Every structure is written in C-alpha cells, then in structure tokens.
Amino acid sequence: MPDLTRTLEANGHLIDSGLMAAIMDTVILGGGDFEIVEFDIGRTNEDPSRLVINVSAPQQDRLDRLVGELHRLGCFAAQPPDATLKPAERDGSVKAGELVVCGYDGMRVVPEFKARDRHEFSFMSAEISSERKVELAVRDLARMMRQIVERKGKIVVVAGPVVVHTGGSDDLAVLIRTGYVHALLGGNAIAVHDIEHALYRTSLGVDLTTGRPVDAGHRNHMMAINAVRTAGGIRPAVESGLITSGVMYECVVNNVPFVLAGSLRDDGPLPETIMDLYAAQAAYTKAIEGADLVLMLASMLHAIATGNMLPASVITVCVDINPAVVTKLNDRGSGQALGIVTDVGLFLNLLAQELE
Amino acid sequence: MPDLTRTLEANGHLIDSGLMAAIMDTVILGGGDFEIVEFDIGRTNEDPSRLVINVSAPQQDRLDRLVGELHRLGCFAAQPPDATLKPAERDGSVKAGELVVCGYDGMRVVPEFKARDRHEFSFMSAEISSERKVELAVRDLARMMRQIVERKGKIVVVAGPVVVHTGGSDDLAVLIRTGYVHALLGGNAIAVHDIEHALYRTSLGVDLTTGRPVDAGHRNHMMAINAVRTAGGIRPAVESGLITSGVMYECVVNNVPFVLAGSLRDDGPLPETIMDLYAAQAAYTKAIEGADLVLMLASMLHAIATGNMLPASVITVCVDINPAVVTKLNDRGSGQALGIVTDVGLFLNLLAQELE
Amino acid sequence: MPDLTRTLEANGHLIDSGLMAAIMDTVILGGGDFEIVEFDIGRTNEDPSRLVINVSAPQQDRLDRLVGELHRLGCFAAQPPDATLKPAERDGSVKAGELVVCGYDGMRVVPEFKARDRHEFSFMSAEISSERKVELAVRDLARMMRQIVERKGKIVVVAGPVVVHTGGSDDLAVLIRTGYVHALLGGNAIAVHDIEHALYRTSLGVDLTTGRPVDAGHRNHMMAINAVRTAGGIRPAVESGLITSGVMYECVVNNVPFVLAGSLRDDGPLPETIMDLYAAQAAYTKAIEGADLVLMLASMLHAIATGNMLPASVITVCVDINPAVVTKLNDRGSGQALGIVTDVGLFLNLLAQELE
Amino acid sequence: MPDLTRTLEANGHLIDSGLMAAIMDTVILGGGDFEIVEFDIGRTNEDPSRLVINVSAPQQDRLDRLVGELHRLGCFAAQPPDATLKPAERDGSVKAGELVVCGYDGMRVVPEFKARDRHEFSFMSAEISSERKVELAVRDLARMMRQIVERKGKIVVVAGPVVVHTGGSDDLAVLIRTGYVHALLGGNAIAVHDIEHALYRTSLGVDLTTGRPVDAGHRNHMMAINAVRTAGGIRPAVESGLITSGVMYECVVNNVPFVLAGSLRDDGPLPETIMDLYAAQAAYTKAIEGADLVLMLASMLHAIATGNMLPASVITVCVDINPAVVTKLNDRGSGQALGIVTDVGLFLNLLAQELE
Q: Burial of D344 by CB count in 10 Å (0-12 exposed, 13-18 middle, 19+ buried)?
C-alpha cells in the first residue's frame, strides 16, 4: 500500500493574500484531508507566515492531482525531487525536440499577492462600476503614467475604433506626441477610422465636429483605405504629406511602434494590418515586452489577446462603457488589473487634460 | 347586409412622417383592404399631402377596430358623428359621475411628426449609441437650455443617486444655482446621498475627493438620514445651517421646487419623501406642468414615471450609461426624445462647463 | 495619555470564511496596527480557530472606529462592558421613547460563513454567468424546493411582468397550484398582464399563442384593469367567474397570499395594489416571515426591496436575463444568494417540468 | 452655368417599403430641393407606385452626391449614360488590371423591401427583446428549417463556445446528425471546448453533467488541444476513435463541412484552425455560398464577419443573451434579419425538440 500522505510547506503573507484559505479549500474540495503540522502566523503586518501541512487522499491519482493544485498555490515539498524534462514529440507552439518540463516535481511557484497597505494608487482597489467618480481614477492613472515616464518605463496602449467614434482620438494623439505611449496595439479598424478622420473629419461617415452624418459619408472609410493602399501604406502616406494628423500620424512621426492585427471581419485591410495571426501574435508579444502598464481602451478582442500574453505582474487598466467587457478582462487572473466603466472619449479627454 | 366600407381622410406631411406607410400597414395587417380614392402629394418639401382612402373589412367588428386604429394615425371621417359621453360608473382615476368620452366617434387625433429639415438641434436626430462623441450633444443641449431660459421657459431635471456617486452633484448644484433647473424630481436616494455628501463628503461611504472608502463609511448614509429627521426635514436642515452645499441645498436657497417620490426599497425615508404614491404622482404632475425640456439623469424608475405623465410635445433628453434604459425610455412614443449613452458624472461636468 | 490598545478575541472558522484576512485588512486599512497575541489554527477541517489580537491606533476616535468595524467581523472584548440603551427622541421607523441600543459595547456579532464542504446544493457555489448550463441549476433548485415543501417550509416568489411577456406565467401558475409557492410578491404590472393574458390571451397586446400583436391589442391591458376595477378587485373577479386561469387566479383559489406593491409608474392601479408604501413595506415584511427560500424572477425593484427586508440566512435565488440585475442583488450581502442569468420564461418552463 | 437639376424615376412599393420617405429625406438633408413631377400611387395593396422627381442643388458636386445617394434608393435616370469601367491600378482585394465600375452612371439598384402581408413567418416581424416568448420563434424557425431541408436548401450555422458552456452542444450535434446543418462556421474555441466535452465531459473545466468544476479541470482544454494535435487533427481524431461524440464528431461523420477561423486570442490552435485570415475569409465565403438561412449562435466576431459576406437576401437569425450583440448584427442592413435575445443553451434544446 502506497503512502497516501505528502508533507508540504508554504510561506509568505499566507492569510492576507488569501492563500491559506485557498490551500485548505483545495484539499477539501479535491476530496482530500489535511492536518496542520505547524503554522506560525506573522505577529505584525510585516511578518510573513509559515505553514507545514500534511495532505492525504484515498487514492494515489487524487493525491497527485491535489499536490499539483497546491503547487500552483505556492506549496512545495521539503525535499523536492528533480524536475522531469522531455523532448517535444512534434512541432506545435514549441519545436520538436525542444525540452519541456513535465509534471510538477522540482518546480516551485511563488504566487503574487496584493499587499494590503502598499497600494501606490488608491484607485487600484476600486471595484468595477459605472457608479463611480471617474475623475479620481484618471488623476491617479495620470500620476502613475508620469512616474513611469520619468523612470523611463514603458506604457502600451491597446485601442479600438470606438476611441475615434467617441471623439477620443485627438486626445490619444496628444498622449502619443507628448511621450506617454511607447507602443500602440490595435486592429485594422482603429487605423482606418483614425485616417478617415484625418482625411475627411468623419468617423464612419459622421462629422466629428458637428455630429451630423455628411453626404455620402458611408463611402469615406473605403476612400480612406483606398488612399492609404495607393500610397503604399500608412508610413508612406504620412511621409508624403497625405496624412497630417491623428493617432497613426503621431505614431509615425514620433517613432512609436504600432501593430495592427487583422480579424476575420476586416474588409480591405490596410497594408500594415497583419492578416497572418501567428505573425500578428508574435508582433504583439514583441511590442509588449518590458511593459509596465497596459492601457486597454474599448477593444475587447485585442485587449483579451494582449492580456493572454502579459505576465501577471504588469499593471493593466481597462476602460470600456460595457461592464461585461471590463469584468471579462479583469477575471483573467492578473493581480494588478483595474477596470473603469465609462465613456472612453470623455475618459481620454480628461486624461489628456490631467497630463498636460 | 351592413356597409363594410368606410371612407376616411388624412392630411399633413403624410410621407415624411411615415403616416402614409403606417396607414396602409394597419389596414393590411388588420385583415382589411384599402383603395386609394385620392392622393395629392405635396410637390415640394413645404406642401402637405392629402389622402382619401376607402377601408373595408369582412366583418363589422374588424372594420370598427381598423377605424379605431386609423383614428390614432390621424384619419378622420368626412362627416364625423358626435362624440359619445358617458358618466363613469365608480371612482377610479376619475370620480363616479364624471363624463368620459367613449369610442372614437367625433374625435380627431393630430399626430406629431418629425419635420425633416426643421431640427433646431442636430443632435436630436442622433441614434442612441455609446459609440458617439458626447461633447456635441452637450454643446447643442446647452444651447437649447440657454434659449429656454432666455424665453422664460421651464426645464425639469429627473435625477437618480448615481448622479452623486459619479461625482456629478456639484455640477448639478451649479446648474440649479445659475438658473437652469426649474424643478427637480427624484426619489429618496438622491437626496440622501447628496446630503451624505454635503455632511461627510462621502457617497455610500466612499470619499468623493479621494475615491477611497472611509472608516465606517457605510454608516454615513444612515447618519445623514437621522440628522435630517432630527432637524425636521431638508428645508429646516438647510435653514438651520446644517446643510450648506449640494443639490438639495441649492434647491432650497434658490426656491427651486423638488419632489421626492418614495419607492418600496427606500429605508428610513427623509421627511420630504412622499410615501403615498397617489400624492407622489400628483406632485410630479404638478411639477412638470408647462415643461419645455425634461432632462432625465440615470434614474430609470422616476424617468419612466415622468415620461408616462408628459405630453408627447415635451422634449426629453435621457442620459444613462446603460443603453437598455435609454432604449426603454425612448420607445415610449414621444416624438422628441433623445438618448445619450454615457457616464452621467462626466456628462454633467461637461454640461456645467458649457453653460458657464 | 489614554490607552490606545484594545485586546479582542474571535473564534470559529476564521480562515476559510475569510474573517482572519478581513480582520487584518480592517486594522491596516483603518490606519491602525495589530499584534497577534495568540492564534490556534484548527488542525483539521472540522476544528475551529481561535484568535487573540491587540489592536492599536494613534488616536482614540480612530481606535473606536476600528473596534466598531471589528465587532462586525465577530471580534469581541474579553470583558465586555454593558450595552448602552437610550430612548428614541422622536417617531421614525421606531416610536419615540422606545429603547435603542447605541454603540457597540456589549454586543457580539456572529458572522455567517460558507462552509467549504457543506453545500447541500452544488449550484449554490456557481458564479453568476450567462455562460453556464441552466438545466443543472434548475434540477438542484427543484430538489431544494421539494425538500422545503416536504418539511413544511416556506417558499416566496417575487415576480415581475416579464414572467408573463416571456410566456412563463402558465408555468408559475402550475407551481402555485401544486403547492410550491407560499406567498407571491410583485407590483401592479405582473397582476395586470397576467389578467390581460387570462382574459384576452395577450400580454401588452401580443398574443402569447401566436406571438403576433393582435388588432387594437394595446387597449387590452387597460380593458383588463377596468374589468377588475368594475368587479371590485382580483378576488371578486375570480370568485364571480370572470378570471378563470393564470397566476393571480391560482393564488386566489389556492389561498396563497399575494402582495402587490405600487410604484410611481403604475397607471390605473388594480384595487389590490397598495399605493401607500409604508403599508406595502409592512405587507411585504409579513409575507416573507419565516421564508426558507425566496425566488426572485425578473423584477429588480421588488427583488431589491425584498432583499433589504430578509435576514441573511434566507436562501435567495435571483433569475434575470440582465447580469447587472443579478450582480446588484447578489452584492447585497446575503451569504446564500444564487444568481442565474437566463431567459425567465424558459427557466420557469424547465422548473415546472422538473417539479412535475 | 451648368444645369443643376436632374430628373429621376423610381417605381415599386415606394411607400410601404419606406423608399418614398427616404428619397425625400435624402434630398432635403443633403442640401438639395425636389419637385414631384408625377406620382402614381398604387390604388390597392398589390399595385406598385411610380415616381418622377426633379432634384436640384446649388452646386454640381452636391448634386452629384445627391444623385449617387438616390441611386442607392432605386432612383434612376430616364436616359442613363453608359457605365464607366477602369482597370484597377494595383493589387488589393482585386488584382491589378481587372476592370472595376466607377461612379453611378449606367447602374441601377433594385432595393429590397419588406412586403407588409407576405411574411411567411410571423416571428420575422418581431422586435429584438428579451421580453418575448421564445417558444414561438423557435416553432416558426423549426418550420422554416424543415421547409428548407425539404426543398434541398442550405442552412449554415455560425456558433461560438458559449454553445458548449451552456449545454447546447448535444442539441447542436443532433441538428447536424439529422440533416439540419449544411455547413458549420466558428473559431478555434468552439471546437476546443466541444472536444474537451467529448473527451472529459467538461467545458472550461466545469463538468456539464453536475455543474461542478472538476479537479484540475482547467487543464482539460489544453489536454484536448494536445490530444487533437497528436492525432494530427480533428478528422483523424474522429477516424481513429479518439473522439466519439459532439458537434465536431457529427460534422466529420456526416460530411458536413466546417470552417474554423483563427483569432488573435487563440492559444495553441487546433490543426484545422485557419490562422491566415485571407484564407479564412475565402473558406467562409465558400461555405456560405447558396445559403438560404444562416443561424448565428452566441458568436459576435464570427457572426459579424459572416454577415459582411452575405447578400441581403439571405435570412439570418441571430441568437444571443446580450441584446447589444443582436442589435449590432441586425443593424447591418439585411432586410431579413431576426434577433432573439435568450439563453442559447435552452434555445438549442427547444429547437432540437421541435425538429424531432
């Protein structure tokens, strides 16, 4: 009969990070049992706690699964065995023959936790709600952005076409020009509508100065696409003097890299839009490297894709008028995600004012 | 065998108001048939059209129903019979014995229609969408409000507690102080949270200056209620110097009438909150008398109730971050309803700036 | 100099209920400091934990506030002082002269907690989401309802008019007839549309058998109101044979008490609709007395009002197609709330099938 | 001075299709003027109308734009000039050198219109609402699907992963097996979760039989991807006996073509997922060729992409629990679009029952 008990350790801020409760929940809900061998609670807020726990289960496979789960919560064996490395059988996301760690042996996870009094920015503790005062979050976000810029950090903006429709693109252009954006991620549509706006002052045919649809305005977005295609791309269209303002213009003249990832619904994509998704994913991954803050503006698809690629340590701020989008993004597990449910055009307007 | 054909007339801008299509639809979908006896279309945009139409149906009751429906669309009989008046049988919304018109005979409805080039305010043609630039609607609304004030017209504001939570109450207070609000309608909650804010700078326990929940802040709203109850009401609380700022304060010192209608979910209502709904409906009806514009701010229940009481000729502007609320309000049949899907706090901020 | 430290105790399942983390958070975020004097963790899942903690703060008022907050989390002083009782100064929710407990001294709160392996009903752990299989929640809910009925418990249903519009009223009528509903709470609208359906087979003028609007159907709801008013009320209208089916009919013939609370937007209320909100609140309070389960069906206003009146120990199940409503209701602090985001008509259909 | 008036004609059901009002609106809002030279209204419901109209504008370019707009509404010149054909300058969606029609001359648009009494299916007139009885729409849709199958027509289903999460995949599998689906369009996620369900009975780690998360269930979707990759694809995984049930299984064994289009957020895509978007668009276009009905189930991205590719004559039925998605899809201009706001799992359950 095999030994169906394993002794595991964990340490850190186990209570305030919720790990202690999660460890105990995991064992019971996973059909196992626990006995606390040792628990030293930190006497003050600064002191870490330390746990030694015996975990048992009725079958070996259940115990193995439990231990796997507990590893993810930062538990580790006192004398860990070596990790197991095996070559990949065939090409996939990794190439055949590359070594891959299999199983949990020899691995240790250090879970993130939210320190209870270390929030640099009070708004980071704010719940997602449309029933909050947005100015405060904007003020704190502006402060954070200024600090990141001062210490030569990196801010990435992910933006959807609603930024243009709601009149926020002039403000986003200001942020780029004044050095607050170090990479811009989006899809075909934001670039198309930004350029439509730069060329014809409309977005989807609506004049953004008067709010009225213009004559035959529905043609403008296709005319913008054709104009850029004729010029050979966004960069040549800026360099030749065709495009003289807007988000894409500022990216080009300020050397801010941008990546436009294609999607199935794009029509007549711009030359810069990457329609090979592997290439688009690679370009996104490269663009977010080293990011300190990612600002996601009204763009569910691109924001979720970016979120999937980000390490949990990067601060993300997601702004959308639809609370479901904000919830979906904040549920993706990052410890430092803030959601703001508001009008993205007005938000950018306030942010640009605050940063000036 | 009865004559199952009726000859009806209609005139006005029948095509651009959609009435012509509605009349024909009504007959066919109601199981009848029509023959157009005469149709003089206006030759230019200014000329009205005139229609004479024979409507027939296979049974008398169906024909009667059809004629009833067509009356609502402005159709009328060439030689109308007298209206039928009967005394009400028992008390209800009217008192027993009062004369009530029964049936459609002798009645003529003049339907409203939207003139295609007479929009004083371009934004009134705007669809409901969160993907629009809000500044333009605010600018036009401010212009409309200024004109109404200049010609001594009447502006009514219906507001919910989200106005306070989102930091819009200082701006609404400015609008009241500067003469842009001539009656305020709401429920218990907006007054409670406005007074909580005036007394403790919090709304639902969140400090509106810092965005942080304050110690024991959840008690503040109950303390605000108790303070006002002890003072004997909002007006005495203002007059005694207890309340010195906010929406309710400005109403009191500027003699702007306010009506707070109770709802089932209110706790500890303020003395001014009317918990008898007949009395509340009567007070609302009186407050909106003669209104030129009703501005509905993040308050579904009170806005729908107000909408039910308004003649269709009053312009209504509904602001809410939830598009479903805006759709619900705009569907209530008024010809002059505008919906703006945005953050109500930022909206009021912009509106107050624009009106200064 | 006053002693700015207090020694408090707490015991129970402090970790898995999240209380331990909440206690520590409260002290730090409230600007205080703590020292853990003693912490005995339960060795196994069954054992409770015990905490003795010193809490200090820089000022007396801050310390008092902290202790107040900690009381709510179940902390108590080792030698508690007597409670302070004062007579109420004037009439409000309580009458002048009635004794009211003031402050926290001498009080002890026993917080609820969710046991990690004691869920009778697996679905109670389900998150709120429209991306879940509803049949499972229905199956478990039906099982719970059967058990409550078997042990002579009490089930209260709160329902809105959407129950009728979506075709769920026949199923709700079955639940009433077969003994699964012991009180029905709602507003004027559910009764009006249920009776419109009983009399004319329409709801808001739409034939629920064909899905088509009927001729002049918009008049039906007013005709239903008038018919009931003429009869003298819902009960006489059932007893006289006017109403022979539907939700209200089943309530009357099965002696299931119902309460219809008025709201500001009601027109022509039915005689049973209570337009005095104090009386309506009292009737609701009486109807929910002793409830084991409250099922809230597509009725935000009445559900929130009911939720405010319920002790936290009552299980509530809220069904609505709008996730925001479900979130709002579940946030109200009850430990036993389940939200189901789905189509309420289809939900009732499944539930009635499952209970047959 | 140029002649700034053009004489145009139009005919058909100009009033009930709304074209007459649209033509007049277009001229006035576009800054022009009109004079009605001739208007013969159909005397009965069957007769078409005929319009001759003079359109004038103050400048030539404005007049040209107006005429362009009116072309789209079915207006045409009495003696039309020849169409202008020019070769494309460079490769884009068309190849360089291919002839493209430029401008409106020589073109005539025949606008669709909704006949007022020709609706085969009553539900097609239903507004989008969550406050409707879904069974009726399902019954009519089932009838339509049966008729299409009888006359050897083509039904295309576009589906998202929520179909699996909500327990609808067994029902969709039945529809495929019984011949009601002739092509399936989706993304990587629906296939991954369907196969996760086929292999492990879970969807995103939740057991669809019990509704409980299973141990380590979050790994199941990655294990499903790896199993299919190892097998070499979905088809070989079915043929080798690895996958024995589900949506993808039924597609393979019943020779129903499926297309999985990639998106930026996909991880570890299945071998069949097309990550080159040009290829994915081409495959979608081919799959919908000749479709009579497209059923869009809880998949905004793929549904919008499909909608963009469809001629307006194809009937589309969009089912989603989020009304905003349904509105967005129905606004895309098709004359025959129906939106149903409901729970997609319950919807498929009802539809499969109705079709059996």
A: buried
- Interface mutation vs chain B, best among C265, C275, C304, C309, most B CBs within 10 Å: C265
Domain range D5-102, its CATH number among 3.30.70.2690, 3.30.1490.20, 3.30.390.50, 3.40.50.1000: 3.30.70.2690
Q: What residues are paired with C203 via a beta bridge? A: C206
For helices B169-177 and B344-355, angle between their N-to-C axes, nearest 10 degrees: 30
Burial class (CB in 10 A: 0-12, 13-18, 19+), A333: exposed
DSSP classification of residue B335? T
Tell me which residue has tokens 């810092």.
B210
- The yes-or-no answer to whether A5-102 and A122-355 have a common fold is no
- Is the pLDDT at D132 greater than 80? The verdict is no
Residue C126: its pLDDT value, please?
45
Q: Is the Cβ–Cβ distance between B354 and B142 less than 8 Å?
A: yes
Q: Tens digits of per-residue pLDDT, B210-225?
A: 777 776 677 888 899 9
Instruction: Note the residue count of chain C.
Output: 356
The number of beta carbons lying within 10 Å of the beta carbon of residue C80 is 12
Residue corresponding to tokens 């009146």: C309
Q: Sort A58 into a burial class: Cβ within 10 Å, 0-12 / 13-18 / 19+.
A: exposed
Residue scoring higher pLDDT (C56 or B113): C56
- Report the predicted TM-score, pTM, of the whole model to 2 decimal places: 0.81
Is B206 at the interface with chain A, CB within 8 A?
A: yes
Q: Which helix (H) or strand (E) holds A212?
A: none
What are the CA-CA distances from residue B23 to residues A4, B27, B103, C276 (Å)?
Answer: 81, 6, 19, 43
Tell me whether residues B277 and C281 touch, CB distance under 8 A. no
CB contact under 8 A, D44 and B33: yes
Question: D224 vs A92, C243, D187, CA distance in Å?
Answer: 14, 57, 15
Quick count: other Cβ atoms within 10 Å of Cβ D267? 15
**Strand partners for D339:** D318
Domain residue extents for chain B? 5-102, 122-355
* CATH placement of domain B122-355: 3.40.50.10690
For residue A37, which of A24, A49, A47, A51 has the smallest C-alpha distance?
A51
B296 touches chain C (CB under 8 A): no
Q: Give the DSSP letter string of B3-60.
A: --EEEEEEEESTTTTTHHHHHHHHHHHTT-EEEEEEEE--SSTTSPEEEEEEEE-SSH
Mean pLDDT of chain D: 85
Query: Is residue A340 a contact partner of residue A137, using CB atoms and an 8 Å limit?
Result: yes
Task: For residue range D46-71, list pLDDT tens digits in order.
Answer: 788 888 989 999 988 888 888 888 88
C317: number of Cβ within 10 Å: 23
List, as ranges, residues 86-145 from C with C-beta within 8 Å of A: 116-117
Q: CA-CA distance, B248 to B258, in Å (whole number)?
A: 8
Q: Do C62 and B215 touch (CB under 8 A)?
A: yes
Question: Which chain B residue has the Cα nearest residue C215?
Answer: B30
ipTM score over 0.90, yes or no: no
- Whether pLDDT at C332 is above 90: no
Could you give the C-alpha distances from C302 to A100, C86, C329, in angstroms and in order? 57, 34, 11
Q: Is D6 helix (H, G, I), strand (E, B) or coil?
A: strand
Contact A180/C at CB under 8 A? no
Residues D258-281, mean pLDDT to the nearest whole number: 94
Residue D112: C-alpha distances to residues C286, D19, D43 (Å): 59, 10, 21
- pLDDT score at D122: 46
The angle at the Cα of B233, spanning B230 to B235, to the nearest 5 degrees, equals: 130
Between chains, do B42 and D36 touch, taking CB under 8 Å as contact? yes
Beta strands in chain A (DSSP E): 5-12, 33-40, 49-56, 76-77, 84-87, 99-102, 155-159, 183-187, 202-203, 206-207, 258-261, 293-297, 315-320, 337-341
Pairing of strands C337-341, C293-297: unpaired
